[in-house]
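Morning. Coffee machine broken again, so started the prediction first thing and wrote up yesterday's gels while waiting. Chain of 153 residues, entered below exactly as on the submission form.
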Amino acid sequence: MIKYEGYLKELGIYTQANFAKLTEVYNVVSGLCNDDILSIFISEYQNTEKTVVVESLFLFSDKYLIEIKQPLGNNLNWDIINYKGCFDFIDVKSSSFDYHLANNDSRLTVVSYLLNATFSNTFKASGKNCNHLLEILNERIKPNLNIKSVVTT
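Came back before lunch.
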């Protein structure tokens, strides 16, 4: 988790306590999946006081997508799915984001639907985190869209 310390600082959520908690959760969950973690994403939004609220920590390995809900809370609640080729469709919404360089007002939300839309993940980003979410979208989600057939008319 040490390699993600700068990411936490960029989001403005780095404290020793937050780093220790996220490291503990990361170690427990990544140890159970038996696959190297390649990317992480912190799903967050800014509340009306402009404070960052962390909703989920997503871990991406070569095979697995793991969502740890409320990772800074006291209870450990997480989902794991083999996500290779299983995204049925994605829904992308943005505000004040040009898909190149995020600013403080930028917002980006990606909802990925899996397994015939019976399971979904919502990734939220504000400010500079929009750039991280765009990277996750391009490197982890889009390559795993499940395109079984192409219909042409």
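The CA atoms of residues 6 and 14 lie 8 Å apart. Going to sketch it on the whiteboard this afternoon.
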